[in-house]
Amino acid sequence: MPRWKPDARQRLVVAALSLFAEQGYDDTTVARIAERAGLTRSTFHRYFADKREILTAGQKTLSRLLVEGITEAPADATPVAAVAAGLERASGEMTSFNRELSPLLHAAIEANEELQERNALKSVGMAAAMVEALRLRAVPEPTAQVAAELGVLAFKLGFTEWAAPARDEAPGELAPLVLAAFEELRAAAKGLR
């Protein structure tokens, strides 16, 4: 077995999600994931503490990108405009690799209660990161919370549409779908009384 090949992290993620879909999360071991990826257990642990981390591997990166977009928004941007900038920044970084993994990730999460809970925490983490970035822009707490939660929901809706099998022929870019979902949610929120 070779000691190093490029894209080890991606290969580990693909191997893990494939195994989770084939044999279930509980029956998949770190050793089997590493073997499927053509790597060693020590290489696995260089990238992930345990197999649970694979499912939230992109959370830190996604949260960082959302925060960067919010932080880099013009100083006079409204909270909604700042969140839109964060959504555009984060969704602009999503690649075909993210899209291709979506069905495997969804299947793994749906089949395991622990993973469903971790996935819910991922959304909480994204929202918390955006709220903190908005606070640093002197946005009041309730406004920051609402804007962030709408942002998380818009990202989920846009990503779900982007990853849908019906879009296989021409998936296009994720950012326009996320921003359209955000605008739709903003319009719906205005109708609440």
What does this structure look like?
The protein has 193 residues and is an all-alpha fold. The chain is built from ten helices and no strands. The protein has helices spanning 8-23, 30-37, 41-47, 52-55, 59-72, 79-92, 96-110, 113-135, 141-163, 174-190.
Overall mean confidence score, pLDDT? 88
Strand percent estimate: under 5%
- Could you name the ranges where pLDDT drops below 50 across 5 or more consecutive residues? none
Q: Percent of residues in helical segments?
A: over 70%
Q: Could you give the count of β-strands?
A: 0
**Separation of termini?**
63 Å
Major pleated sheet: none
Features:
elongated; single chain; 10 helices; 193 residues; 0% strand; mainly alpha
Task: Give a summary of the structure in a few sentences.
The protein is mainly alpha-helical and 193 residues long. Helices cover 73% and strands 0% of the residues.
Topology of this structure?
Layout: H1 8-23, H2 30-37, H3 41-47, H4 52-55, H5 59-72, H6 79-92, H7 96-110, H8 113-135, H9 141-163, H10 174-190
